Amino acid sequence: MSANAKKTAFIGLGVMGFPMAGHLVRAGHEVTVYNRTPARAAQWTETHGGRSAATPAAAARGAEYVMLCVGNDNDVRAVALGENGVLSAMAAGTILVDHTTASAIVARELYATAKARGVGFLDAPVSGGQAGAENGKLTVMVGGDADVFARSEPVLACYARAVTLMGGSGSGQLTKMVNQVCIAGLVQALAEGIHFGQRAGLDVERVLDVIGKGAAQSWQMDNRGKTMAADKFEFGFAVDWMRKDLAMAIAEARTNGAVLPVTALVDQFYARIQARGGGRWDTSSLIRLLRDAG
User: Fold this and answer.
1) 213 is annotated as an active-site residue
2) Catalytic member of 7, 176, 226, 232
3) Average of per-residue pLDDT across 47-71
4) Which residues 6+ apart lie within 8 Å of 157 measured at CB?
5) How far apart are CA 239 and CA 31, in angstroms?
6) Element (H, E) at 11
7) For residues 57 and 81, what is the distance between their CA atoms, to the nearest angstrom?
8) DSSP letter (8 states) at residue 157
């Protein structure tokens, strides 16, 4: 291990965590992983090397940095605070980073618990999707203490193109909520635009090429426009995950007084997609509702 290499643990090897942990190995860090499904951890070690552990605590023992990338608040609490959770094994002076898209409430809860044990904590949700994780080009939105962030930034940069401290504990999760609110409105508008163009008899691929060079351009248009036009949705960020994220944003809005009428409406559109069996479809599947209505 080189002088700059760190002993790290990575908990959660889903479509995001699997490649993220791999980037740590490629950067020269010593990585131990844990996954709820042992076969997935075995697949990871076969692909990337490193080691796997039988529990989160076993993975975290002796690690300088521990990263979490699991499903929701309950999963975060289980792997961090539960029996054999990582905090039971982390020493004072080490750092826990949660990449899960979770609530600001659980972020602040973990921050307080970790701090009481002398452990640094960052809430650090990511954006960029599976492709961003695989290519090491994620955007990481971070909440926590500036000194802990400064120590962690070089490690997080192994799988990111941008790592930014947004403020105190919970700020990373709140920033991710802003991200998801913006995406929800963008995808619905893109769906309506493509649907309109198709009904008008236009060559939609040509339309997207043209307007993608102007003010309407967006990541969603560049990466999802043509697949939406082709009615393809068996990939990407699932509707089920988006509804989880929007539910947290809507709940937070009730607390802080923000008004989110478009977000609430698009969330109900996604509920209709789920009801017809599309929970695992990409979020761009909103256009299906328009086609069926037309």
Assistant:
1) no
2) 176
3) 98
4) 163
5) 31
6) strand 7-11
7) 10
8) G
Residue carrying structure tokens 């942990």: 21
**Of the residues 167, 189, 213, which one is the last residue of a structural domain?**
167
Q: Same domain for 133 and 180?
A: no
| Confidence (pTM) | 0.95
Whether the Cβ atoms of residue 86 and residue 68 lie closer than 8 Å to each other: yes
The Cα 232–Cα 92 span in angstroms is 49
End-to-end CA distance of the chain: 61
**Helices and strands per DSSP (H, E), number in the chain:** 13, 9
d(CA 269, CA 88): 42
Cβ partners under 8 Å of residue 186, min gap 6? 218, 220
**Count: domains in the chain:** 2
Pair 78, 182 in one domain: no
Cβ-contact 122, 152 below 8 angstroms: yes
Q: Would you say residue 3 has pLDDT above 70?
A: no
pLDDT in tens, 128-186: 999 999 999 999 999 999 999 999 999 999 999 999 999 999 999 999 999 999 999 99
Encode pLDDT of 234-284 as tens digits. 999 999 999 999 999 999 999 999 999 999 999 999 999 999 999 999 999
Element (H, E) at 40: helix 38-48
Q: What domain range includes position 41? A: 7-167
Q: What is the DSSP letter of 53?
A: -
